[in-house]
Amino acid sequence: MFFASIGMAEVVHVRNKGKHPWGNDTVTYDSPALSTAEKDAVNAGIPRAREDKPAVKYMTRYYEPRGETDAKVLTIHALDDGLVLPENETKYRQAFEAAGRSDQLVQLTTAEGGHCGFISELFVAIPALTAWVEDGVKPTTAALMAACPSSCSFTETEPGPWGLRVVERTQRGVALESLVCTGLEGDCPADSTCSIADAYCVGS
After folding, report:
1. d(CA 143, CA 124)
2. pTM greater than 0.85
3. Spans of all domains in the chain
4. Whether pLDDT at 204 is above 80
5. Is residue 165 exposed (0-12), middle (13-18) or buried (19+ Cβ within 10 Å)?
6. Is residue 76 a contact partner of residue 118, using CB atoms and an 8 Å limit?
7. Which of 83, 121, 185, 188 has its CB surrounded by the most CB atoms within 10 Å?
8. Can you tell me the distance from the alpha carbon of 90 to that of 189, in angstroms, rounded to the nearest whole number?
9. What distance in Å separates the CA atoms of residue 10 and residue 14, rounded to the nearest whole number?
10. Strands of 105-110's sheet, edge to edge?
11. How far is CA 4 from CA 9, 83, 183, in A?
12. Residue 36, phi-psi category: left (phi > 0), alpha (psi -120 to 50), beta (remainder)
């Protein structure tokens, strides 16, 4: 509830002076548990709003990851995280790939732990990050699994395509060519394709 209330208010009312960086006017809400008629009813009854271009531009400039860093970055994400989709890691990796900084990123996943509930894994991941920074020893999932006690749940399984959970769409204030992609399903808005060579979406 914090993110849906306090966090959202901070973004909209403080950072963007009352303007909204998100809209849902082109979103189709779906659920495999609903019939076609029920889905149509849900979508017909949901209030719609368009994003404000200045707010979208602000968020893109100051909050959109670009992967343009010389720092070594290690992430841990639980596959059962119900608050922040683990598929976000896929889109985050694409940003590093587009920036030519793939070597600066190591992404680890755990089979369980929910949102930030993987304490045992942190006990081996933090020293591994330190060794990477100080000694150049890049962490691997296999090495951490070997160093981890039995309570750890590191896994080689990776999150799926981000676009299958959150379909990419065009937004006012965001240039199509600024959207990173690697050709995975849903990477780019419906009216565009992924330029694999450039790692960015392009108009079809």
Report:
1. 10
2. yes
3. 1-63, 73-155, 163-204
4. no
5. middle
6. yes
7. 188
8. 16
9. 5
10. 73-78, 105-110, 154-155
11. 8, 11, 32
12. alpha
Residue 102 in tokens: 């793939």
pLDDT in tens, 108-143: 999 999 998 999 999 999 999 999 999 999 999 999
3-state SS of the chain is: CCHHHHHHHHHHHHHCCCCCCCCCCCCCCCCCCCCHHHHHHHHHHCCCCCCCHHHHHHHHHHCCCCCCCCCCEEEEEECCCCCCCCCHHHHHHHHHHHCCCHHHEEEEEECCCCCCCCHHHHHHHHHHHHHHHHHCCCCCHHHHHHHCCCCCCEECCCCCCHHHHCCCCCCCCCCHHHCECCCCCCCCCCCEEEECCCCEEEEC
Residues 137, 106 contacting (CB under 8 angstroms): no
